[in-house]
Amino acid sequence: MNMSTAENSFRQATPMVSVLVPARNEEANLAACLESLVGQNGIAFEIVVIDDHSTDRTAEVVRSFPDVMLVTADPLPRGWCGKQHALYCGMRRARGEWLLFTDADTVHRPGSLARALDEAEESGVALLSYSPEQEVRTVWERAIMPVVFAELACTYKPSEVCDPASPAAAANGQYLLIRRDLYDQIGGHSAFRDTLLEDVAMAKAAKLAGGRIRFRFGGDAVSTRMYRRLGALWEGWTKNLALLFPHAGRLAMVRAVEFTAISGAAIVAVFATGSGRRGMAMVGAGVGAAVYANFVRRIARAHFGWPANLLAIFGLPFFSLLLLRSAIYYGLGRSVSWRGREYRFDAAEGRESEAVISGTGK
Fewer CB within 10 Å of terminal CB in the chain, N or C? Predict the structure, then answer.
């Protein structure tokens, strides 16, 4: 981050942003993330990466960036989620008036950090969160991810989240920019140590404390590829879906019926046409087209390209299965796995959309 005298003077006149990146076995993603961050300009910032007991080359990757601060997380205490604890440890070194929490698998557009701070200040908000552009490459990603994010867009409507008069609150932990004083006021990550949805919990607390929120699709600022393997996708959404959607079982049935209506109507239309039953074929085609058109309108809200949108119909039954699996895991109090740790939901102490967990292992 070498700067000219003029640039250094300019940056000192602007608020500093501390960028905190928790990293657990992220050697495959971290270099691209840090390259995109160290190249930001027009703003004063520091980058803090917290190595959360990685067993790969994560720390070595960080050390290859001389301007990036490396912090090693303390052993994970019982009752903490790993990500929150890593960020809690990193916050001891953060000096910024604004804090950006972002994931190690994100890639940031040139100049996006300065633009984000300008957007937050011009909008008069204390918390700004972007939902990144989702990169999808495999058939599984292209089929399932648009369905998940379309449902999220319907459940957590940005227009309601951004409305101070609405109780709706949401954020995406892949990119969450918050003013330091508000972060301290709501208790920091220690206040959300026992929920797997720390981003949504932080947004709720911020709004209750009187902080204004801005939440939107942020493809112009940041992108991410969340899951590179089907197993990771299955594990990750099992961990999250029942928490993101309070009535996950009911929603799973609704989406299963939707898929059955679309596919069933198409089958009826094809067989009726083949047997010369023109009227039945028209009815089947009409019903299928109407339900499918509504599905496509919903999928379009997720901001994926058309190849993924077309494959999304095949992701619909898998989304229903994931919802049911997640609901069953939490309903039965079973442990969910994530990044080599086990988290157990305590049904007796659970709250809507949140989980009380205990982590095991480093």
Answer: C
Question: What's the pTM value of the predicted model, to 2 decimals?
Answer: 0.88
Give me the tens of pLDDT residue by residue for the chain, a chain 362 residues long.
444 444 444 445 679 999 999 999 999 999 999 999 999 999 999 999 999 999 999 999 999 999 999 999 999 998 899 999 999 999 999 999 999 999 999 999 999 999 999 999 999 999 999 999 999 999 999 999 999 999 999 999 999 999 999 999 999 999 999 999 999 999 999 999 988 899 999 999 999 999 999 999 999 999 999 998 998 999 999 989 998 998 999 999 999 999 999 999 999 989 888 888 888 889 988 998 999 999 999 999 999 988 888 899 999 999 999 999 999 888 877 777 777 787 775 543 444 334 445 555 55
Give the Å distances, CA to CA, from 354 to 4, 64, 112, 190, 244: 47, 38, 31, 15, 8
Sign of the CA dihedral running 265, 266, 267, 270? positive
Q: CA-to-CA distance for 165 and 213, rounded, in angstroms?
A: 11
| Other residues' Cβ atoms within 10 Å of the Cβ of residue 79 | 12
Spatial separation of the C-alpha atoms in residues 23 and 335, rounded to whole Å: 22
Looking at the chain, which residues constitute the CATH 3.90.550.10 domain(s)?
A: 5-132+172-228
